Structure formats: C-alpha cells, structure tokens
Amino acid sequence: MGWKQISGRLGLTKADSQQWMTDYQQTGDQVLLAKLFTLHADALYFFLLRQSNAELAADISQQSWLKLLEQRDQFQGGCSFKTWLFTLARNALLDEFRQQQRWGLTEITEITETTLFPATDANPAEQQLAAQQQQQQLDLAIQQLPLLQQEALLLQLEGFSLAEIALIANSNAETVKSRLRHARTMLASLMEEKP
C-alpha cells in the first residue's frame, strides 16, 4: 500500500501540512514538527534512495530536516510544504553529487542479486514472486535513466503535479514534460530488453 492510500485513510491532506508548517513557523512547537516528519519523512527518504544509496539517502534526508529547522522562516507558502521540503532535499543531493565529482568520486550502486527458481504452477506465491521480479526490473531500469529524467519520473511517481516538479527541479513545465516523455520511452525500451 502506497503513502497516498495511507495518508488518504488517515484523512491527511496537503492543507494539513501547510497549516502545521505555518503554525510551526510561528510557535516552534516540536509536536507540529513531529507531525510533519511523520507525514513526509518516509516519502522523502525513498525519493532520495531511488536516486542514490541508503547511506547517502539517509544523510541527505537528515540534512533536509535540519535545514528545515534552521530555515523554517524561509517557507513562504507559495507552494505546498512537501514541494518545498523535496526542493531542499533535491538541492542538497545535487550539491553532494557535485562534490563527489569534484573529488573524483563516483556513485557506487550495489545491486544484490537473488537466485530465483523457475515457476512450475501459477499459484499466488509465484504470482507475487513474478510481480516482485518485475518491480526489481523496473527499479533497475529507472536507475539507468539519466539523472534529470529519473528525477522527474520519481517525483511524478511520488504524486507531484507537473507544476510542482518544475518548481522542485528549478525548470519550466515544458522541459519537465520532455524529460518525462523521454524517460517513459527509455523505460519502455529497457523493459523490452529484459528477459
């Protein structure tokens, strides 16, 4: 079950985040910050994880929350709180990538391969295994996309609108549309190549 379904069942909306952040700016109430963290921390971490590794995702996620603490007055409310938070995280991730390039480091992605046995009957367990394999193939294909296409696609999968993606990526909507179109085309090609 995805975050959209969970938050929908809890009755949480974007307006709740906006109000909590506005109230947090005014009062500094840590309970409000905890609510924001509970609502958005997992989505932020998994967005970063799909573009990096677990250690870097955790580090950038933590940096983003610390930046929120330090710069809470900079939230203007011109976009959703989640859009603002993801923008902080994206900028921190790009800064880290630039720093790694400056020092000659390369991103190392560890891929763990599991041994899978061929299916003999079409039972629910085998169907679930097949679905997991397909998801792994999709995840690997997404990792092969160019960074900006990958970012746009992951933000769209996270539920951001085209305008919000453009804001987070510091780009215009037409460029984002183009990145998404190219990402889908490349994904389709990569998925066709898989056995």
From TrEMBL:
The keyword Lyase does not apply. The keyword ATP-binding does not apply. GO terms for molecular function: DNA binding; sigma factor activity. Residues 36-102 form the RNA polymerase sigma-70 region domain. Keywords: DNA-binding, Sigma factor, Transcription, Transcription regulation. GO terms for biological process: DNA-templated transcription initiation. Residues 136-187 form the RNA polymerase sigma factor 70 region 4 type domain. Belongs to the sigma-70 factor family. ECF subfamily. This is Sigma-70 family RNA polymerase sigma factor.
